Amino acid sequence: MDGFLTVDQLAQMIDMHPRTVRRYIREGKLKAIKVGGEWRIRREDVKMFMDGNAQVLQQNAIEDVQAYIDGFDGQISGKFQVCTVLDCYVKDNDEAYEISKIVMRHMNEDEDHGEAKSQYFYDKDAKKGRYILWGNPRFVGRILNSVGEFTGEQN
């Protein structure tokens, strides 16, 4: 089911609580189907949902970054912390989404990332994927290096 996401996967990807994602499904704001008693969301439906909510997500991201700057981000801790905004100018939403999968792979598979979070949204007018990353510098650096390798950008 490579073309589908679970509620938990989507929630982590867009930095929402799984209950919020389920509420969006229940309210009909997000299309989903039940498979084996669990909701599955098609990637195409995620794209449509994200495009429709880009301004809300962007405002939430701005508020989260400002909270970090002001020292009020209680979700990230540790001696060294970093918050970075990565803007990737791409040809379309599919390319931006591929980059988001790189970020999510690190969020899901890196064992030593400590407390970290990420947000992603696509601005179709600017053809830009925006990725906001919080965590320890080494972890965020690995993500940035992976994105650089994927896009062919050099340091």
Automatic annotation (TrEMBL):
User: Where would I find the Helix-turn-helix domain in this sequence?
Assistant: 4-53
Bilayer-crossing regions: none
What's one Pfam family the UniProt record gives for this protein? HTH_17
Per its UniProt record, what InterPro entries does this chain match? Answer: DNA-bd_dom_put_sf, HTH_17, SinI_DNA-bd
Q: What is this protein called?
A: Helix-turn-helix domain-containing protein
Lineage, opening ranks = Bacteria, Bacillati, Bacillota, Bacilli, Bacillales
